[in-house]
Structure formats: C-alpha cells, structure tokens
Amino acid sequence: MNFQNKLLAGLVAASSLAGGAALATGSGLKAEPLPQHKVPVSPDGNLVVGLCDGVTSMEVVGVKDGGSMTRDQAQAVSTALMAEWRRKNPDANWDDVPLPSRAVAQTAKPPPSPDPKGPRSPPAVDGTPQKPSAGGSVKSGGQNAAAGASEVAAKKDAHLQTGHTYGAFSERDEKIWADSTQAFVEEGNRVFHDAAALGGTIAVSCDMCHPDAANTHPETYPKYQVQLGRVAMLRDMINWCIQNPVRGKPLADDDPKMKAMEAYIYARRKGVPLEFGKH
Which InterPro entries would you find in this protein's record (predicted)? Predict the structure, then answer.
C-alpha cells in the first residue's frame, strides 16, 4: 500500500471511530432557541401587544410600534388581554391568588430568650461530656460535630458562616442562611415587578398577568408546553414571557436575575407538592 492509500485508509478509520463515538455518547438533545410568536400588524402603525398564549393580542391606540407605554397603560392592556383569554377559555384552571409564602411576607421575629443555664456544647461523638462553650448553642450532625463546635465558638464574632455543612452549625449560621435566602427571593420579587429590570421595551412586567406570581405553577415543571412545542423548564417559560409579552431579550440560565425570579416564584408556592408534567 503506497503512502496515499495509507493516508486515505487512516482518515476513513478515524472518521468511523468518531462517528461510532458520537452514536455511543450522543444524547440527541440540543439547545434550541425559544420561538417567537408573531402579533398582527396594525394598519395604523400602532403597538400591538401579544399575550403569552401566543394567540391573544391587542392594539394600543396612540402608541406607535417601537414606542413604550406608561406603566398604567401596560397594566390596563395586560388586564384586558387576560380578560379576553379567560372569556375564550372559561374552563381553564387559573389560580388568581398564589398560596401564602413566609419567604415573601416574612415578619421579623424577636430574638430567642437567653438560656438561663448558659450556652452549652453537644457531647463528643464518643459520648464524653464537653466543657461549656462561649460560642452559643451548636446544632450537630455527622461525625465532625464536636470538632466543629470549638470552631463555632472561636468565630462567634465573625461576619461569615461559622459551621461545617455536615458537622456543626449555630443558630447564628441558620440566621445567615435564612437572611441570604430571603434576600435572594426579594430580589426576584423586585425583578418580577420591574419592566426595566426585565429588559422590557414596552413597560410590561411579569406581575401584570401573574400578580404575586399567580398561576405560574413551578411545581409542575418540567412539562410539555404547547407554545414552545417541546418540554420546558420554568426558566424557559420565564424567558418566553420576557421575549414575547415583555419584548425583552432572553436571560441566560445562570443570569442572577433568572435565578432570583425562579427563587421568588418557587417561594410563592411553598408547601405545594411537586407534580412534574401536570397540566
């Protein structure tokens, strides 16, 4: 076999191996851009706003295409669009009011009363009593609980989490975790209600059709969405609404605004059982 034939044979073999590897490891799944629904064109050049169902729309007289409404106008248009959708879908299961959520409407709690016996540390793993610690009460879990307790005491005045994930943590740690989570949810609440933060161009924000995240049903995702023509996650539907009714640009999956809005929506459905795929 001459050099040219050897080279050709080598290329064919390499191609076959690559193709076999692709067949063996390829999942067949690929990222697809979200579809955009087309709204009717106004003969007078006015703005036309479409609902997230991809069908219902309304012309805004007095606002030209490419312009923006006021927030009051945007709310009035959103309310009218939702009324029209409900008229056409009288049997649809729409939740007007989401379940109460402590994560959103959380009231400040007074600090716990001090223990009259003073702070105590948990016993060591082998059951040997420990000397009381000055670091406050410590909650234990896992084999490193006792070792973590001394570190909690040593860092009791630090402005960082002091415990170990699977070792020991204090009530102060729990307060840090709760406050951090609450701040994350509140940021999602802010973005959800702010057209500019969403990147919208016509003053429409998510809350105008979904007040307090009503009828978002995050517990039912993933599920097939007719508007998208495929199985979707909650973030896909958030982006669908941003791209269509809000007239903004989709957010990346790891965008802090996307994460915060997901946290806010899930917080509003706290206590609801997961039931993916439900319609």
Answer: Cyt_c-like_dom, Cyt_c-like_dom_sf
